[in-house]
Amino acid sequence: MNTKVTIAGVEFKNPVMTASGTFGSGMEYSDFVDLNRLGAVVTKGVANIPWPGNPTPRVTETHGGMLNAIGLQNPGIDVFVERDLPFLSQYDTRVIVNICGKSVEDYLEVVERLSDEKADMLEINVSCPNVKEGAIAFGQRADCLYDITSQIKKRARQPVIMKLSPNVTDITEMARAAEAAGADAISLINTLTGMKIDIHRRSFVLANKTGGLSGPAIKPVAVRMVYQASHAVKIPVIGMGGIATADDAIEFLLAGASAIAIGAMNFANPYTTIEVIEGIEAYMKKYNIDDINEIIGCV
Question: Does residue 61 sit within a domain?
């Protein structure tokens, strides 16, 4: 039984990854999860300098999920290279580094810093606010997405995944823009913008007022967008958004995802990734599927 998938020339032992921002760099989860069994660890977003993140409170539960407005708090690329990458190098898993920034130059600085490091792929978080464009996210305008993708591709030594925002009118337009600019793969969806109000205090629950909605509540939207994007482009798609079980993961594979990432459910059940890997294997045995690639995009 073959569970291996290949994305942009990089082979993964199985299609199960962690979603950026929900797994750190694996250190917090290594007591619960054998990182060697994962297809890849996708790190929390890293910037060129330390980011303090947003004021608290910045996380709250909702029906079927959670809202977060962490603000991409991270220690910066220097600490990441000295601490996180050496930790991950101990394990037999692929390493995908998620990169964030507030200007094209911020992203390029991190991309170049990682050129000689042991990272298998780079995932670019284009849901960051573009300070030079009035704080609209890079991933919300096709021309901005094309520009940042093409510039990163000129500098990157590793294959580049563009992580797309669902907060757009037409996800296929964004997918095509990333592909046209040279992206090696795309991943989606990032969180949906949401809000929660405390009716007793009559004020916003999150200090930031809005936050990113993740968890099972967003899965139907994510499956639809992955299906649309995978049919709009020829490059591989990594699907995510509300995956809680192996059944959820298989749904994304059938919709056209070459791999999947598990995010919010890591907080609710730190064993989710391993349970999904085992569940996919059980599904393949049940339906006599010899190669997982047989089912990718078959719907």
Answer: no
Buried b (16+ CB within 10 A) or exposed e, 230-269: bebbebbbbbbbbbbbbebbbbbbbbbbbbbbbbbbbbee
Give the domain extent around 220: 5-52+72-191+213-294
Cβ atoms of residues 33 and 270 within 8 Å: yes
Residue 77 is encoded by which pair of tokens? 């690329």
What percentage of residues in the chain have a pLDDT greater than 90? 96
Distance CA 195, CA 286 (A): 42
Active site residues: 128
Domain-embedded: residue 201: no
Residue type, 88: L
Show the 3-state SS of 155-174.
Answer: HCCCCEEEECCCCCCCHHHH
Q: Say what the pTM is.
A: 0.96
Say which CATH number the domain at 233 has. 3.20.20.70
Question: What is the rounded CA–CA span in Å between residue 121 and residue 103?
Answer: 21
What one-letter code names the amino acid at 272? T
59 assigned to some structural domain: no
Compute the 3-state secondary structure of the chain and give helix, strand, coil in percent, each to the nearest 5. Answer: 35, 20, 40
Cis before 189 (ω within 30):
yes
Residues ≥6 apart with Cβ < 8 Å to 86: none
Q: Which of 87-93's residues contact partners 24+ apart within 8 Å by CB, and which partners?
A: 87/25, 87/26, 87/27, 88/25, 88/26, 88/35, 88/41, 88/43, 88/118, 89/118, 91/26, 91/35, 91/36, 91/41, 92/36, 93/13, 93/35, 93/36, 93/37, 93/38, 93/39, 93/40, 93/41
For the record, the structure tokens of 287 come out as: 């339906």
How many domains, the chain? 1
**pLDDT tens track for 60-92:** 999 999 999 999 999 999 999 999 999 999 999
What's the start-to-end Cα distance of the chain, in Å?
Answer: 21
* Tokens 């050129």, residue located: 115
